[in-house]
Amino acid sequence: MNLLDIRNLSVTYGTDTAAVRGVDLTVEAGRKLGIAGESGCGKSTLALALLRLLPASARLSGQILLDGEDVLTMKWGRLRAVRWAGASIVFQGAMHSLNAVHRIGDQIAEPLLVHRQATPPAARRRVGELLEHVGLPTARADAYPHELSGGQRQRVMIAMALACDPRLIVADEPTTALDVMIQAQILRLIEQLVSEQNIALVMISHDLAVLADTCDRLAVMYAGRIVEEGPARAVYDAAQHPYGRALSAAFPRIGDPASRRAPRGLPGDPPDPAALPSGCTFHPRCPVALEVCASEDPPLAEAAPGHRSACVLTTGSRP
């Protein structure tokens, strides 16, 4: 049974602004799913939707099944508990996510005191264990966020996410603004924790190369929709959708000097969710678009074993 099962999830603002459109994804316990795409493709909206952290103006439809229980129909009390004990999130930008006027230890202890009803001494012991687990000295519990480096703050965010032993962690751009060496440390830490504790991971990033090295499966998102999904290395090395190929080509590759000299980009920007183009939403930017692409939006269909794509050129699929 899948730990997380997303079925036809859509997020709409106002009357016609579709930030997420008909997403279907699954994650098993102990497995890692990466979601990639440019800024504005709906990745963070999807991440926040998984825990119902979007503003009240957002309308959600479909299902988000966590261990068979639908997050979208949970009562407030149950949802509040699930956000810590069932699933937790590592937000983008640790400095803005931590409370600047509270010590690190107090912030990690808060969910333990509230949700696990731990005694203060037990919570302090658990804080020390969590800090050691993410590679920080226990003395850092007395520090304020501004006294830590970017990598240390990110480790604190991971410690907070692990506080109540969740079954699922959603990591939204967990290595944003970190230098390359610190990024590698954080990614290794995440991989280690998922493996040791059998946690399911959904990791959001614009960096296809990072996701290909970290995750088991990879989904590519464009204009609120999943346009490609499959084994992580297969999506990175042999993308089936033109957008997936464009994302992959944007990163230099080891052993390929030509890619370092001239990494390829993609002209234009993702479309406005309130004014999506007709047909395939990628066709105005697609270098291989056909006439039919302007009028028909193909479904996500199998292009290779276990590898799906929403493109008539790779699957021959028609709506």
From TrEMBL:
<dbReference type="InterPro" id="IPR050388">
    <property type="entry name" value="ABC_Ni/Peptide_Import"/>
</dbReference>
<keyword id="KW-1003">Cell membrane</keyword>
<dbReference type="InterPro" id="IPR027417">
    <property type="entry name" value="P-loop_NTPase"/>
</dbReference>
<keyword id="KW-0547">Nucleotide-binding</keyword>
<dbReference type="InterPro" id="IPR017871">
    <property type="entry name" value="ABC_transporter-like_CS"/>
</dbReference>
<keyword id="KW-0472">Membrane</keyword>
<dbReference type="InterPro" id="IPR003593">
    <property type="entry name" value="AAA+_ATPase"/>
</dbReference>
<dbReference type="Pfam" id="PF00005">
    <property type="entry name" value="ABC_tran"/>
</dbReference>
<protein>
    <submittedName>
        <fullName>ABC transporter ATP-binding protein</fullName>
    </submittedName>
</protein>
<dbReference type="GO" id="GO:0005524">
    <property type="term" value="F:ATP binding"/>
</dbReference>
<comment type="similarity">
    <text>Belongs to the ABC transporter superfamily.</text>
</comment>
<keyword id="KW-0813">Transport</keyword>
<dbReference type="InterPro" id="IPR003439">
    <property type="entry name" value="ABC_transporter-like_ATP-bd"/>
</dbReference>
<feature type="domain" description="ABC transporter">
    <location>
        <begin position="4"/>
        <end position="248"/>
    </location>
</feature>
<keyword id="KW-0067">ATP-binding</keyword>
<dbReference type="InterPro" id="IPR013563">
    <property type="entry name" value="Oligopep_ABC_C"/>
</dbReference>
<dbReference type="Pfam" id="PF08352">
    <property type="entry name" value="oligo_HPY"/>
</dbReference>
